[in-house]
Structure formats: C-alpha cells, structure tokens
Amino acid sequence: MGNSTKVYIDDRQKKMKVPSGTRLLVRRACKAALKFENFPYPAEISVSFVDDEEIRRMNKEFRNIDSSTDVLSFPLCENDEYEPSEENGCVALGDIVISIEHAQAQAEEYGHSFEREVAYLTVHSMLHLLGYDHEAGGLEQVRMREREEGVLTQLGLPRGTTYVMD
Question: Which CATH number fits domain 6-154: 1.10.10.10, 3.40.390.30, 1.10.3720.10, 3.20.140.10?
Fold first, then answer.
C-alpha cells in the first residue's frame, strides 16, 4: 500500500512567527484524531494559519458571522460518504483554518501553552471534518468534548498540563 495520511500546512499570516514544532504538532494532532476515530482510510487534510482579520472575513463570508473566531472547518465529505481517490487512495477530508492570533490570545486567557491550544483547535476541527457537530449542544457536544480530550491525552496534552516536546 504505502499510502499514508497527508497534512498540508500553509502559513498565510504575518502577525506572529509560528513556533518551531507547531507544524509537526498539527500533523500529529490530525493523525491522532483519525486513529482515535478508527478512520479506515489514509486522508488528506489542508491546514491554514491565518490572522484574525482573514478568519473574520471568512467567517462572515461562509457563516454570516461578522467576527473573528479561533478555527473554521470546511468538510468535503457529506454524510460519512468517504471516497478514496483512485490516484492516491486518500480521502480528501477538508480544510482547517486556524487564527494564530486567536490561538495565542486564548492560550494566555486559559493559562495553557500555545501548543496545547493549537492542538486542541486542530483536533476540534478534525472532529468536525469527521462529521461531529456541537452547534446544537446537548449530548453531541458532550461526546465531542470527550473525544477531544481522548485525542489530546494520547498526544500527551491532557487538560491542565503544559506540553513538552519529547
């Protein structure tokens, strides 16, 4: 086979330097979420780092919400219909857009590391790409939180710890 998950990362912002190790962490977070959910195929995920201004523009354009946010998810698969491409056997899951500025501010606000925040946003967004939805709240939101914590614990980033590269 030899097909494995591909995570494409594009830093499209100039507001802050993305710390070294962040790209690796994002890749690990994507793969850990897929593994945790027993996703049966190799996947392709595209992750963009943007600033608050760009994520606000996207949020307005795609969700009609005129404010900046921490992360946006753009799933490509509807109703769990995953079609691996004939070309490379990967399922194109979709796009994750993270506001690096927002992640930094939230890390400070919650008193944990920037890495933990970026890992959390990545995992949260991956679960959206895999069909989870927390917008309605209730049980679905609880299930999503449990899964997020499960994946973050596997990454060595459980709640209340700071992340250290091994």
Answer: 3.40.390.30
